[in-house]
Amino acid sequence: MTAALMLELRDLSKSFELHHQHGARLNVLRGIDLRLHAGECVVLSGPSGAGKSTLLRVIYANYRPSFGAVHVRHDERWIDLAKATPHEVLEVRRRTLAYVSQFLRVIPRVPALDIVAEPLLQMGVDEPEARRRAGDLLRRLNVPERLWALPPSTFSGGEQQRVNIARGLIARRPILLLDEPTASLDVENRNVVAQLLAEARADGSAVLGIFHDEDMRDRVATRLFPMQALEAA
Ligand SMILES: Nc1ncnc2c1ncn2[C@@H]1O[C@H](COP(=O)(O)OP(=O)(O)OP(=O)(O)O)[C@@H](O)[C@H]1O
């Protein structure tokens, strides 16, 4: 059986208007076509400035593309996020699309355990179960138990990143977008993340990510998607 198509980008382009430079335009993405299937891990590769992070942000609907389509399979129907309403975007993010960036957006005064459990609570999992699963995941990611009741604002970069990964992976989503989620992690914790991604793929998640570390890229990628920097318009 062929794996289900989960995400399809068609002729996608993105340019930014540079307001401080008299409205000059910077072309970052042009004519991107990409198909992502369940169980795949496609890694975006290419030099700094090639538009890798921009592409993930366009897919997550943080940026609207200048041209083209972002088709996402959501509840067995297709939604073009380039044209979706804000309500549809939120629905897709709640159940279909997860985005794990390099940095944890710390919510003041909320303990690490609650930050990780929150996506499960939003899906209707009861609180004791959500907190138990959050603890299990933090333990796997070697976040010491003494930190779980504390807000992560004082955590080290690597500890914050592991809380961020736990929050992003705890509620299994069909499509995972990962922007350098392992940049500040040591080898042992990178291994844990590689294992968690393998489990997500085995469960049918489709993964699209950026990993600058070559070793990590080689371990997790089923395919590379090369990108090149464009000239300014
Ligand atoms: N909001 C924005 N407004 C204007 N220009 C932007 C914006 N976001 C990104 N850019 C520009 O788009 C280009 C691509 O940036 P992007 O961060 O997507 O590259 P990247 O391939 O992820 O790079 P790196 O590997 O260094 O993280 C850069 O020249 C950047 O300055």
Q: How would you explain this protein's 3D organization?
A:
With 233 residues, the chain is of the alpha/beta class. It folds into 2 domains: 1-96 and 174-233, Rossmann fold (3-Layer(aba) Sandwich); 100-172, no CATH class. The chain is 34% helix and 27% strand. It is built from 7 helices and 9 strands; from the N terminus they run βββαββαβαααβαβαβ. Strands 6-7-8-3-9 form a 5-stranded parallel sheet, with helices on both faces. Helix 3 packs across helix 4 (127-140) and helix 3 (112-122) runs parallel beside helix 5. It binds adenosine-5'-triphosphate. Adenosine-5'-triphosphate (ATP) binds at residues 16, 26, 28, 48-54. Pfam families: ABC_tran. GO terms for molecular function: ATP binding; ATP hydrolysis activity; lyase activity. Residues 7-232 form the ABC transporter domain. It comes from Dyella monticola.
Keywords summarizing the entry:
233 residues, alpha/beta, Rossmann fold, five-stranded parallel sheet, four-stranded antiparallel sheet, 7 helices, 34% helix, 27% strand, globular, binds adenosine-5'-triphosphate, lyase, lyase activity
